[in-house]
Design a protein that fits this description.
Number of helices: 15
CATH topology of the largest domain: Rossmann fold
Number of domains: 2
Radius of gyration: 20 Å
Largest sheet: 6 strands, mixed
Shape: globular
Number of strands: 20
CATH class of the largest domain: Alpha Beta
Length: about 425
Amino acid sequence: MTTTRSSSTPAKLVLRCSRCGDRVAPPALACPRCPDALLRSDYRESRFRPLDRQDIFRFSEWLPPEVVIDTPVGPVVYDGERLARHLGLRHLAVAFSGYAPELGAHNPTGTFKDFEALPTLLHLREAGVDAIVLASAGSTGRAFAYAATLLAFRTYIVVPETALEAVWLPIPPSDAVRLVVLDGSGDYSSAIEAAGAISSAFSIVSEGGARNVARRDGMGTALLEYARTFGALPAHYVQAVGSGTGGIAAWEASARLIASGSFQGPLPHLHLVQNAPFAPIHDAWSAGAETLLPADSSDEARRIAEIRAPVLANRRPPYALAGGVREALRATGGRTYAATNEEIVAAQRLFEDLEGVSIGPEAGAALCGLEQGLGRGWIHRDDPILLHVTGNGDALLRRDFSLCRVDPWLRITSAEDVRGDRRLERRFAA
């Protein structure tokens, strides 16, 4: 099923600068006056009115695309009774945003990145965009490759070579997916730089990352599903983060729910978890810093190579931007944590033993954060809590599907390969 609005209907949303409040037409990524600020969605529909659907477009009124399509993508929230009992909690809900049909979760790439990709490509297609470029450490690339195949939307996905094996699909990829691999690299930041070079050199629209409101509003649907299911907001929201965009999304969704008049505050406290020894958000927040702490690039690379959850390795998260991670933590009375590899492995085993489903290391990190928050008294055992399990890998998908590898479309060694080779113009234009 596909539906669109009448041409006479007022625009579904405008964007507002989180610093100056100016209105900007979508799908802009930044305010002309405030480049150091995120834009936010201001929807025509201010009421919380979930539709009678089973997928992410249950919350279509608060997602940028005008088009609604049928999709298996969607948030699932359930009462985590066994895990709650083990931890001594009264009210623990689990947002399971992977693939586990036993739990009603059918996200086709096993990650909450599916919530970002489909709304983004639909929104950009409606705006007349015919191709985008983005960087990924693996899971984002899978999700955008799936959405690009589904929508026949040309999408250039830049990944470090170490992430290549993580880019697979439960369906054969289409020619719309253009996978660019950085040979010999394990650095997500290098992929970001190369994606920027491709955007600049060949005039291909950048997907935008944290600046993309379609991405953030898609991620925020997990919080919306909690509100729909339980009729209230949680006191605490726990998630593992790399860029921190998921935390920003939960903050924005909570504020929108309170502004709708259907829910009372306060805002849920954000509890954002990273994988030690690479935890730039945790390090900056713990130090009370206004910006990320200075770091040596070689030392960062060493620490990134040591972590179990590489999807959490973002060297330049939107920490200090207006509307960014630091502001979200301040507004919600939030906390940050760092989980070791050993703690993450133990948390993954615990979740599988109690809930019967395996989870990815990033979700294991989130559970570590919940345990640390309880141990430090930052989360009370009687409080309503939402634990966001943002992915569970490929074991169940491999059980149910023949997974298809996405082959490289182009191999380069750095952003300089793009900047210095005009012979690529014809290839990127095709």
